[in-house]
Write a structure and sequence with these properties.
- The model has no long low-confidence stretch (mean pLDDT 72).
- The protein has three helices and no strands.
- Helices cover 66% and strands 0% of the residues.
- It has 128 residues and is an all-alpha fold.
- The two termini are 30 Å apart.
Length: 128
């Protein structure tokens, strides 16, 4: 009786996965057809923007530039422009030393998962 139940559950599990497998195959076929239709055109890749680009050439990265399209910076005093440039360089240096935010989140998440695993193992050992 137990074997019959196990077999029926496996059939139900495989049956529920069938529509997903069919959909995945259809998507792969569509991608292959699209590639066959346009073999000459290389796929367009967006330009990599690290946020430190300077479109107006004033030395201040666009993400910190109050006037990103104005190379004269709306007649700001030179010492203020120098402060913007220095601040941007400091931020870039710190970002390089600390790593990106994504790395920090990844590490925190990884630590949490490790702690959870350790707790589960301890609980299992206590139960035995």
């Amino acid at each position: 009786m137990k074997r019959l139940i196990v077999i029926l559950m496996l059939i139900a599990l495989l049956g529920s996965m069938y529509p997903m497998a069919v959909l995945a195959e259809d998507e792969e076929e569509e991608e292959e057809e699209e590639e066959e239709e346009n073999p000459e055109e290389p796929p367009e890749e967006p330009p990599e923007e690290d946020g430190w680009g300077d479109s107006d050439g004033d030395g201040i990265p666009d993400q910190f530039d109050p006037f990103p399209d104005d190379p004269d910076n709306a007649d700001m005093p030179e010492d203020v422009v120098d402060q913007f440039i220095q601040a941007a360089e400091n931020i870039k240096e710190l970002e390089g030393l600390l790593g990106s935010e994504d790395e920090g989140r990844y590490r925190r998440g990884r630590r949490r998962r490790r702690r959870r695993r350790r707790r589960r193992r301890r609980r299992r050992r206590r139960r035995r």
